[in-house]
Amino acid sequence: MARTLRDEGRLALWSDSTEELAEQAQGIRIALVGNARSLSAKNLGSEIDAHDIVLRMNTAPMTSAKSHGRRTDWLATSVPLKATRLEQLNPQRVMWMTRKRKRLPYDIARRPGFFLNPVEPVGALARQIGGPPSTGAMVMDLVHSLPFKQVTVFGFDFFTSLSNSGRRTADQVPHDFNAEREHAYALFNRDDRFTIR
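Request: output the structure for the sequence above.
Response:
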């Protein structure tokens, strides 16, 4: 009912708070693993898994452990996942990133460690980049606001090599990847916790 009515107050009751995320993030290292196909050509899996938290996105496709690693501690998604995929990934935390609350599955919202990304920062990000942000852009924005010691970004080439999670090209998705790239690199330049691999 809360989802159908877009009742943010009631939906927030299902979610861990941003303060709880901040407490967990304090002083630790996180790997943000995007879905760019170019990551499959690299041997970064062991480096990814060496982080304290490995965060993956949406369906979290992993072509090999050699390129992508094995762990998924946090899963940030804007799409419903099949129960079997959630079971395979077995994340400690699932984060619903998009403002599209009607798409939020009950089985995700009821999981321990569920986090509902607040609508206000997503709206602010959309205004900054001039359109709806991708899951990756929302994740970077959220992680930037948390007290991580180190943030290493893997598998982000802003759709230059397309995505492992689908067959669509950049002009077939509702995101401006040039604007997202500019926004991300501006973030990397002003926040020395971020490294892109």
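The first strand starts at residue 29 and ends at 33.
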